Amino acid sequence: MLAAFRKDSSGFSPLDPRRLIYCGSRNLEPSLLERLSEAGVSMVEGGANRSGLFAEALDVLLPTSSEKVLVHLDMDCIDPAEGVANEYAEPGGLNKEDLLACINKILARFEPLGLTVASYDPSQAGGDRIGEIAIEAITRAVAHRD
Predict the structure, then answer these.
(1) What pLDDT shows up at residue 1?
(2) Are 133 and 94 in contact (CB under 8 A)?
(3) Rounded CA gap, 24 and 34, in Å?
């Protein structure tokens, strides 16, 4: 199906996976980690594999050239201690300060083409807090466009 989509999407080309950075991922299946690594996707892992501040690790992986970026924010990257984004939330994620520091690093270097927010179920425990964090991230991205 993906191959058919590529053929029918004239003017568009697949995104090079080497341009992708996962930040805050944790508890991914070994086979998925292997496929991401083989494809050249960069990772700033959370959980037991976390090695310092997320924003500092992200800064090392960000390209140095001035490019436009699309930020996709899965709210379950947030540590459940802040609130539970959805049923898949796992310990070892970003706290509010981590997330906003990562957003700031990205916005300081790149022009955002867009920000998508996903993986948020407001009915979960602390869902209001997760929503507030998402709104703050969105507000920063929008303010940066002015």
Answers:
(1) 41
(2) no
(3) 17
Are 13 and 32 in contact, with CB atoms under 8 Å apart?
Answer: no
- 49/120: higher pLDDT: 120
Other beta carbons within 10 angstroms of residue 24's beta carbon come to 25
Q: Would you call 64 exposed, middle or buried from its count of C-beta atoms within 10 A (0-12, 13-18, 19+)?
A: exposed
* String of DSSP letters for 93-132: -B-HHHHHHHHHHHHHHSEEEEEEEE---TTSTTHHHHHH
Query: How far apart are the C-alpha atoms of 143 and 146, rounded to whole Å?
Result: 6
CA 137 to each of CA 26, 54, 123, 144: distance values in angstroms, whole numbers, following the listed order: 21, 16, 20, 11
> pLDDT tens digit string along 8-32?
566 777 878 888 888 888 888 889 9
Consecutive H or E run containing 88: none
| One-letter identity of residue 47 | G
